[in-house]
Amino acid sequence: MPEDIIQRGLYFEEFAADARYLHRPGRTATEADNVLFTTLTMNTQALHLDAAFADTQAPFHARLMNSMWTLSTMVGASVAQLTQGTLVAQLGFGDVTFPHPLFAGDTLYTESVIVEKRLSSSRPGQGIVQIAHTGRNQDGTVVATATRSVLVHCLPEASA
């Protein structure tokens, strides 16, 4: 009988410093994504919700995708490849930037680089990994960057 294989992220030992992961497929942003995310998070910013208002605002003259949607989607795109089933906890974010807006109709492509890793000094069998995420639109323009620290499990046999 064939062995069942479950997709998972990486254990601590499997992360390699400077490794770059391209997360595919990309995610095309929609107006519905923007309105739903913005209202679910109680963000009343007219630049996300009011097309007539946004149309009058220079320099973009259009509704902008909620930057928190962009951040969440960028990180979410990395989960299957990096942390699915191996994550213990999200520890924090740093250096979050949005150098260019994302609009409905744009496609967000995410890449992640492993910046550093170290074993946890207080949690045996677990390690801390710092990941730098970059989101680009379909033209290759950087629309978001963030670093995040995660606590992940070590390989089961390594933690025994």
Automatic annotation (TrEMBL):
Chain ranges of the MaoC-like domain: 17-128
Family listed: Belongs to the enoyl-CoA hydratase/isomerase family.
Domain of life per record: Bacteria
Species lineage: Bacteria, Bacillati, Actinomycetota, Actinomycetes, Micrococcales
Protein name per its UniProtKB record: MaoC family dehydratase
SUPFAM superfamilies registered for this protein in UniProt: Thioesterase/thiol ester dehydrase-isomerase
Organism: Microbacterium luteolum
